[in-house]
Every structure is written in structure tokens, then in C-alpha cells.
User: Fold this.
Amino acid sequence: MLTLFDTHAHFPSELGRESSDFPPFELEFMAVGGSQELNASALAASTPYKALGYDRDQFDSDRAPIDYANISAVGEIGLDYHYSPETRTRQIALFEEQLQLACDLGKPVVVHTREADDDTLGCLRNVRARGIIHSFTGGPDFCRSLLDLGFMISYSGIVTFRAADNVRETARFVPDDRILTETDSPYLAPVPLRGKPNRPEYVYHVAKFLADLRGTSLEAFAAITVRNARHTLCSSQS
Assistant:
């Protein structure tokens, strides 16, 4: 049976499957934190793949210590200047702190970046972590710079949106061994499900769209992305 991997979901699989218009498949997914609340829900999810950390808006919050034993990655972490560019300095400080933590632990990172290309690259060059750029929304130059730094590029339902030509351009040239799929549930439901709460099983639509875009079969593309996800995440668990 076909297997797909959602590398980024913010709610547990216990919600179960709903009736869908796509064929059955095996689903693996990573539950992702980013705040105390999201970290707790990720820990409660019934998956061996979990990412815990403190994201860009958590610089003034209480940040409980995290036990990273058996945790796959540090995340999500990163920078977002869309709503709060005035917090840039504090976001960068927290981001670099989390990047250094991941390096010290030998764990990959799960990076959020929005309207912060230059600072994201600066931080990733200052602290040479490895890992995943999640829900990539940038253009070709940014993508190539991230690939040069060794990062995996993960695509969410945004790649299916009508206005995302820049994202689709990058999805055509990311190498087979560097591409991943995700949903970012419960956000960013892909076409044809825009406007609905997103669910990990909707990664089917992301994978099918990307396979068609790259001129390959869904089965071949799924095998590539599952292998990439397992390699990126399993090698870090201890």
C-alpha cells in the first residue's frame, strides 16, 4: 500500500480519518510543537516522530525545560516578520538559542521563516544546524541558498494555491533527496480543500500535486519523500 509522510502537523492522529475522495494509504507524521501548549499536544500524539521547541513568538513566554530524549527534532523555531517586525532582535536571539540547542543535542531543526529571508540565512550561517525548512514559501534564490546550507525543503498545501508560482518554481528543481511533504495541520488545507480545517491525511493532495508538477508518479514521489523524512528524523533519535 502507498505510504505518505506528513512532516509537520499540530494536532494528534487520535482525531482519526474522515471519509475522503482519495484512495487508502498508510500515513506517518511528525507532531510538532513550538510553545508549551503545542509541545504538550505533540507529546500526546500517537506517533514516534515528535518535534519540540520554542517558536518566534515565545521570547517573552515561560519556557519549561524540555526532555529531548527520544525526540526527533527541535521545533518549530524560526523568524516571522509579517505581523511583528518590531520584535526582530528578540526573535533572532531566541532562534539562535534554539539552533545552538539543536547542535548541542545532535538533533535536526524544524524552521519557520516568513518575510525574514536575510535574517534566516544569517542565523543559519552563524549556527550551523541541520534540518527542515517547513512550509516553504520563498523564491528560487532563497531556496538555493537553503539547499547550499544543507537543508531539506518541505512543501505544504501552499504549493497548490493559485498565487504560489514562486513556490512551484522551487518545487521543480529541489533535488529528490532534499524534498519533503507536510500539511501544517490544522492550517493551510490544500486545493481542493481550501477553507476546511487541515488534517494530516490531506498530505495526499500535496504529494499528488508535487508528483504531477515534477513529472513523476505518486508512488515514486511518495517513496522518495518517506525515505527522506525517515532519514532526517530517525537518525537523530536517541
About this structure: The chain has one domain: 5-9+27-234.
